[in-house]
Amino acid sequence: MFTKTEFIDIDPVAAEELLALFLQDQWHVIKEDDSKLLAVYEQYYIKVFKKTNIVEKIKGKVVGNRSQRFSRGNSLLKEIGLNAPPIVVHGNFNNLPFIIMKEVPGWNVSDIIHSYFVQPSREGLRWKRVLLRELGRTLGEMHRHDIVHGDLRASNVLLHEDAGKLSLYFIDNERTRVAKRKYREKIRNLVQIFMMSRRGFSLTDQFRIFSAYYEFSNIDSKARKIMERDVLKTLDKRLRRRTKSLDGTLLTDPPAERLFSYYFE
Ligand SMILES: Nc1ncnc2c1ncn2[C@@H]1O[C@H](COP(=O)(O)OP(=O)(O)O)[C@@H](O)[C@H]1O
Ligand SMILES: [Mg+2]
User: Fold this and answer.
1) Which residue of 69, 70, 115, 171 sits with most ligand 1 atoms within 8 Å of its CB, as the best mutation to test the pocket?
2) Best of 38, 42, 159 to mutate for ligand 1, by most ligand atoms within 8 A of CB?
3) 140 and 66 in one domain?
4) Using alpha carbons only, how large is the chain's radius of gyration in Å?
5) Cβ contacts of residue 13 below 8 Å, gap of 6+?
6) Which H or E run contains 89?
7) Which ligand is nearest to the CA of 37?
8) Closest Cα to atom 16 of ligand 1
């Protein structure tokens, strides 16, 4: 049963219909574990947050439940001009917090790297630099405002295309927040995004991200060297520890030629 629902920028009739269809099991479940359920229906995603342990209960009272935290994380990014999927409904489902968000059509960056950059063509290499620069820029913007993403793996960054123009979207924003331990949390984000180094990603590529990142975050040149050292040291440790292959799907659509014809604003 749905309770405490609130609709945001969605026709209420359409929203009621979405909820009814969920109750009739008409949504396609993508993932379900102890912590959450993720399902899709047409251009909507629903996420039901399932954890109900004592820590979560206390957190819920103090900083809001997971759906509220998710919405807040999303809004933080939007306030500074970065993209996050629009949330259209939130509330409770069987007393568990949930959100419904709009689908961001596109591909996750993990799949893009996996599919096109393992053995890139010349054209692919050129385009890859454009993507790395945009990753560095957006992350720099985020960190300049002292906002950190809670789980910045490449699969949580979506590449969206509209009329040939690309933009990056950050999803999974439940733990996106204003950093408390700023330096540590920023390092952590950089390491998370650099974990894509497991495939098709060179040291030069890392420096391309750093270079755009510095341009847009306001880290002074003395701090840069230290930051680089700290990131690469932690990254090295994590890459050694982790032998699992990249969690990416091999994309065939978009074909490389089409993808490489798209550019960021
Ligand atoms: N709003 C959305 N638009 C498009 N794809 C999405 C959206 N939300 C989730 N996805 C897809 O579902 C996957 C898992 O969603 P995510 O919110 O990252 O859950 P998890 O907590 O399991 O990582 C994403 O990697 C992405 O491919
Ligand atoms: Mg995710």
Assistant:
1) 171
2) 38
3) no
4) 19
5) none
6) strand 87-93
7) 1
8) 172
- Say yes or no to pLDDT of 25 above 90: yes
Closest CA to 187 of 143, 144, 132: 143
Here the CATH number for the domain that contains residue 19 is: 3.30.200
Element (H, E) at 235: helix 221-241
Q: What is the DSSP letter of 86?
A: P
Which residue in 18, 55, 49 sits closest to 31, CA to CA? 49
CA 19 to chain centre: 25
| Judgement on whether residues 215 and 248 belong to the same structural domain of the protein | yes
- Ligand 1 within 6 A of CB of 171: yes
Domain hosting 183: range is 107-264
* pLDDT digits 0-9 by tens, 187-221: 999 999 998 877 767 888 999 999 999 999 988 88
pLDDT at 246 exceeding the cut of 90 = no
Same domain, residue pair 132 and 230: yes
Q: Please provide residue 242's backbone torsions phi and psi, each rounded to the nearest 5 degrees.
A: -100, 120
168 and 185 assigned to the same domain: yes
Q: 189 and 256 share a domain?
A: yes
pTM (2 decimals)?
0.94
Residues 167 and 249 in one domain: yes
d(CA 136, CA 193): 10
259 and 224, same domain (yes or no): yes
Question: Which one-letter amino acid corresponds to residue 102?
Answer: K
Query: Whose alpha carbon is nearest atom 20 of ligand 1?
Result: 172
Q: Are residues 121 and 177 in the same domain?
A: yes
Type of residue at 49 = F
